[in-house]
Specification:
- The complex is a heterotrimer of chains A (130), B (132) and C (287).
- With 130 residues, chain A is of the alpha/beta class.
- Chain A has four helices and five strands; from the N terminus they run ββαβαβαβα.
- Chain A has a single domain, classed as STAS domain (Transcription Regulator spoIIAA, 2-Layer Sandwich), CATH 3.30.750.24.
- In chain A, helix 2 links the parallel strand 3 and strand 4.
- In chain A, helix 1 runs parallel beside helix 2.
- Chain A is globular and about 35 Å long.
- With 132 residues, chain B is of the alpha+beta class.
- Chain B is globular and about 40 Å long.
- Chain C has a five-stranded mixed β-sheet, with helices on both faces.
- Chain C is elongated.
- In chain C, helix 2 packs antiparallel against helix 6, helix 3 runs antiparallel to helix 4 and helix 5 packs antiparallel against helix 7.
- Chain C has 287 residues and is α/β, with parallel strands linked by helices.
- The longest helix of chain C is centred in the middle third of the chain and has 45 residues.
- Classes of the chains: A alpha/beta (130), B alpha+beta (132), C alpha/beta (287).
- Chains A and B meet through helix 2 and helix 3 of A and helix 1, helix 2 and helix 4 of B.
């Protein structure tokens, strides 16, 4: 069965979503990530959505769930690469992503995760959801 | 390009197909990237509602021509249990962030025109239109 | 008894079709000053098409109501014609002339065929006038709508040029807004800003509204939505230059202002941005 690959980068996990996911695939990703966070003792999860042209409320909730579950497992989630059109649409949709931090790209996302692990809240990227 | 088409909305997979078809129509009609994203996202929400709450149904795509402007109209229809309190369903979505409401009120905000008919026991029909 | 006009008109148009077409084209070429803009071949094609639709509609229609179903195809044809002429830069009078120039050729033939019968002639002439005037008015309406679209598009193009996003430093963008903001302009400008954030990899965007006189609720909403969208993309916005009245509008929207950093001047905002990005002086912005 098809799965979205999860890469390990030091103490972080990187997921790059490149396909138009159907719901079952999204659920599988959620499960797989939770497993991997525990198995690899990951401290952070980077979700790269720079290829996603559409993010609807289902995907949004999935991201929120991943962030919530990660936090329970003592890991931070950062969503990177949201496209402008997607961001504009999500705001219009009324979907906030509580507990999810965001960055422009994978590099910046890693910086953010490292900084937040080093102590404190990093360098000023507040929760996307407020 | 067709001007009037009906597609099934029954399975998980159909939602992905609906997104792709709506994108093709929106691109052909010359919508901007942001406009495309909005209507495709709205369609995704309504398609999901049709399956989750309506037990499956159809979507009708229509390209519109009114004088000098063009538009895309999508009608999602199901013969499901219907929505008992429309006003509440449309209002609640914004704050709860989940469930039926967000899809409906979200789709409404993303469209230029929004119309909904629902009768408990008979079904639901939601029509959204985006003008270029 | 009122004799309804139209019956004789229909048969006369059919009978004298090619003659009417000739005269009609001649009338238009004479009337339109910018004859060099019209290709005679194109005009002929348009006239032939209109005349054929006109005849069909006359035949099918029982009265002078050009908003009714039998006239739908004719209306569509005129809508398309007006639109392409509007885009090509014709004058509205020239577009109306297309329909009105048909009057004389029609009246001439009505007179020659019905000359002896004054009452019938009067009815037919009246019927013709009402129908053609109605269609001419329609073309000006379509024309206007199309022109509005063209102007809007031109405005948007100008907007993108006139509200440049400036890169102040590496990772820091500034958008100085000047003049009156309307909902449409704000939307275009904001979409532009978000794209520039991606293009330059900026982490902070300063939106300066010192030069903006008033901000209505719609514009304030767009501003807040832009800030929210930028945040979802991983960038922060600082709004500078907010005047007291504008602050009131924003607060009335119920938006939590403590989530958005605001500064009195662009300079102040720049200082904060520098601190946030941890930049040291002496590192110039990338080209």
């Amino acid at each position: 069965m098809e799965r979205i690959p999860i890469l390990k980068m030091n103490e972080f996990l990187l997921v790059s979503i490149q396909v138009d996911m159907h719901d079952r695939l999204a659920m599988t990703l959620q499960d797989d990530l939770t497993d991997r966070i525990v198995r690899d003792r990951a401290r952070g999860v980077l979700i790269d959505i720079s290829s996603l042209e559409i993010v609807d409320s289902f995907i949004g909730r999935m991201i929120g769930n991943i962030a919530a579950m990660s936090r329970v497992l003592d890991a931070e989630t950062v969503v990177v690469g949201m496209r402008p059109a997607v961001a504009i649409t999500l705001v219009e949709l009324g979907l906030s992503l509580p507990g999810v931090r965001t960055s422009l790209n994978v590099d910046k996302g890693m910086d953010l995760l490292r900084a937040s692990l080093a102590g404190g809240n990093g360098n000023g990227h507040p929760d996307a959801g407020r | 390009m067709p001007v009037d088409e009906i597609r099934p909305v029954r399975s998980d997979h159909d939602i992905v197909v609906v997104r792709q078809v709506v994108r093709t129509w929106a691109v052909d009609l010359g919508f901007s990237l942001v406009e495309q994203t909005k209507i495709i996202t709205a369609a995704s929400e309504l398609a999901r509602n049709t399956i989750d709450y309506g037990g499956g149904g159809t979507v009708r795509l229509q390209s519109l021509r009114e004088g000098a402007r063009t538009g895309l109209r999508l009608t999602f229809e199901d013969k499901g249990p219907g929505i008992p309190d429309l006003e509440l369903a449309l209002k609640d979505g914004y704050t709860t962030g989940g469930g039926l409401g967000l899809g409906l009120s979200g789709a409404k905000r993303l469209s230029n025109e929004f119309d909904i008919w629902s009768r408990p026991g008979e079904g639901t029909r939601v029509t959204i239109t985006r003008w270029k | 008894m009122v004799i309804r006009g139209g019956k004789r008109l229909t048969e006369i148009v059919r009978k004298h079709q090619s003659g009417i077409l000739q005269d009609w084209i001649k009338e238009q070429l004479a009337a339109v000053k910018a004859a060099d803009r019209i290709s005679e071949a194109d005009l002929r094609a348009d006239c032939e098409r209109f005349l054929s639709l006109f005849m069909t509609a006359l035949q099918a229609s029982g009265d002078e109501d050009i908003t009714a179903a039998p006239w739908a195809e004719t209306r569509d044809m005129l809508a398309n014609l007006s639109r392409s002429w509007a885009v090509a830069g014709y004058k509205p009078s020239e577009t109306a002339m297309f329909v009105l120039a048909l009057k004389r050729p029609l009246f001439d033939r009505l007179r020659s065929e019905i000359g002896g019968d004054a009452e019938t002639l009067a009815n037919e002439v009246w019927h013709t006038t009402v129908v053609l005037d109605g269609l001419a008015l329609l073309t000006t309406e379509f024309f206007q709508k199309s022109r509005e679209e063209v102007i809007l598009r031109q405005q948007q193009d100008m907007l993108e040029l006139s509200t440049p996003v400036v890169q102040l430093w590496e990772g820091i963008l500034a958008l100085p807004l000047i003049g009156t903001l309307d909902s449409n302009r704000t939307q275009v400008v904001m979409e532009n800003l978000l794209q520039r954030i991606v293009d330059t990899g900026a982490s902070i965007a300063i939106i300066d509204i010192t030069g903006v006189a008033t901000v209505d609720t719609l514009v304030a909403q767009h501003l807040m939505k832009t800030v929210a969208a930028a945040r979802l993309m991983g960038a922060d916005c600082i709004i500078s230059g907010i005047r007291p009245q504008i602050a009131q509008t924003i607060v009335h929207l119920g938006v939590e202002l403590n989530a958005v950093v605001t500064k009195a001047t662009l300079a102040d905002a720049f200082v904060v941005a520098l601190q946030r990005t941890g930049s040291s002086m002496g590192r110039p912005a990338k080209a």
